[in-house]
UniProtKB/TrEMBL annotation:
Alphabetized SUPFAM superfamilies for the sequence: NAD(P)-binding Rossmann-fold domains
UniProt similarity note: Belongs to the short-chain dehydrogenases/reductases (SDR) family.
Name of the protein described by the UniProt record: 3-oxoacyl-ACP reductase
InterPro entries on file: KR_dom, NAD(P)-bd_dom_sf, Sc_DH/Rdtase_CS, SDR_fam
Pfam families: adh_short_C2
Source organism: Kribbella hippodromi
Length: 448
């Protein structure tokens, strides 16, 4: 689906109208291209004191070859146009330290390059060592979410909370938030805990791993299959028998295997486990992407319509996860990713069934993350906002236009944006990332 309005705003007439009438001006967002650097411009780094996290961040910036300068007081009239501003706030121990945010960002934020990145790193508030520290750390959320709404021209602002002694786990998450892979992830908070230190090739982080992707024939699922394969995984693509042809096309391009089944069928979990064991010796990554909408207001909701949505979107992921974990088909150290939705967070008119199912996916993550940690299996979810797919193409024009524009980036996301977020979750180097729900919504203005 093309965004015709966005295309129009790039024409001379469009540019004039946007400027004179103050219309939305959605900058086309660059996406990551294989072989390109994590970040293609200078980085300005600031911090509250010297911390272990700060050292780890600077080591990473050197590792990815970023030209970076440090400026605790910002760079007021510098000629550089930073591509990213990275601020280590883990050293904030009381609210007095919050002044550093204004001192660092205020002079430099205007200089941020188009599609720039702002990443603030904090200490997980609940794991603070004093109430004063917890208050200051929690305050970072308000700062980042507001700055996300202020920065323009495709820039994003995100907050990463890191647990004490988990600073060595920062790499995969910072790579994601600094690069164009996170183009449509804005105003989000990610949490990193302690996990085993995994060092892998960041260009092929999933080499040697097997990933199951449900609903892989088209849309977001096809993008997930392609992206996980790009990162080195062997992909098992699942979809309904009616979609055999498109599924075959996706899988033949990436060299995985296909499995035609309805995820709601009684033996779906058993068939998936048998296929994974026989063809691949087990599984490392499971992505529950298959999903449907059957929108009706509750007064008109038939039982079969309600059940169909709950069955595909929630009960199937729950049942399949249980079986794959209990049978050991999903190996220790594996990663499960659920696909929730903004509707599951904010609710939506006509979507009581869908929103129930998608909020349930968040429940699945929260319920299982602590239990699965015993086997070092991680579970996270993405919550897409408006993504350009066949599903959203069916939405009536005016509602579709509103959905597209009502976010900080003033445009819909692409399936690749959801896929890149899932690839970050699936990366074994994200060993400390579990129990997270990250919205891929361009910082949608719709909230809970
Ligand atoms: P889509 O309709 O384009 O693709 C969904 C795929 O899942 C299809 O190939 C379909 O055949 C498959 N599928 C459906 N039911 C199945 C079943 N019972 N068994 C096996 N496969 C089945 O949808 P999409 O837009 O790519 O959405 C993918 C996921 O993202 C869904 O879970 C959806 O709820 C979620 N999501 C999408 C958006 C969006 O804006 N497109 C927003 C939020 C969440």
């Amino acid at each position: 689906m093309t965004d015709r309005y966005q295309t129009f705003t790039r024409t001379p007439l469009g540019k004039t109208l946007v400027k004179n009438l103050g219309l939305p001006d959605p900058l086309p967002l660059p996406r990551w291209i294989e072989g390109s650097p994590v970040i293609d411009g200078p980085v300005v780094f600031g911090a509250i004191g010297e911390t272990d996290a700060g050292k780890a961040i600077q080591a990473l910036l050197r590792d990815i070859g970023a030209a970076f300068s440090t400026a605790n007081e910002g760079v007021a009239s510098s000629e550089i146009r930073p591509k990213a501003l990275v601020f280590d706030a883990t050293g904030a121990t009381s609210t007095a330290d919050l002044s550093s945010l204004q001192r660092f960002f205020s002079p430099v934020v205007r200089q941020l390059a188009p599609a720039g990145r702002v990443v603030v790193i904090g200490r997980t508030p609940e794991l603070s060592s004093s109430p004063e520290q917890q208050i200051a750390q929690r305050a970072l959320e308000g700062f980042t979410r507001s700055l996300g709404k202020e920065v323009k021209r495709g820039a994003t602002v995100n907050l990463v909370y890191v647990a004490p002694d988990a600073h060595e786990q920062l790499d995969s998450t910072l790579r994601f938030f600094l690069s164009p892979k996170s183009a449509y992830v804005d105003g989000q908070v990610a949490k990193i805990g302690i996990g085993p230190l995994v060092s892998n090739d960041p260009n092929r982080p999933l080499a040697g791993r097997t990933a199951l992707v449900t609903g892989a024939a088209r849309g977001i699922g096809a993008a997930i299959a392609n992206t996980l394969a790009r990162d080195g995984a062997t992909v098992i693509g699942v979809d309904v028998p009616q979609n055999a042809d498109p599924l075959r096309k996706v899988i033949s391009r990436i060299g995985g295997t296909e499995l035609l089944l309805d995820v709601t069928s009684v033996d779906a979990a058993q068939r998936i486990a048998a296929h994974a064991q026989e063809q691949h010796g087990g599984l490392d990554i499971v992505v529950h992407n298959a999903g449907i909408t059957r929108d009706r207001r509750l007064v008109n909701m038939r039982t079969d319509v309600w059940d169909a949505v709950l069955d595909v979107n929630l009960r199937a992921p729950e049942r399949i996860t249980k079986h794959l974990v209990e049978t050991g088909t999903l190996r220790d150290g594996g990663s499960i990713v659920g696909v929730s939705s903004m509707a599951g967070i904010a609710g939506n008119n006509g979507q009581t069934n869908y929103a129930t199912s998608k909020a349930g996916v968040i429940g699945l993550v929260q319920a299982l993350a602590p239990k699965l940690a015993e086997r070092q299996i991680r579970i996270n979810a993405v919550a897409p906002g408006f993504i350009e797919t066949e599903m959203t193409a069916k939405i009536p024009f005016t509602i579709r236009e509103v959905g597209r524009r009502l976010n900080s980036l003033q445009q819909g996301g692409l399936p690749i944006d959801v896929a890149e977020t899932i690839a970050w979750f699936a990366d074994p180097a994200s060993a400390g990332v579990t129990g997270n729900v990250v919205r891929v919504c361009g910082q949608s203005l719709l909230g809970a």
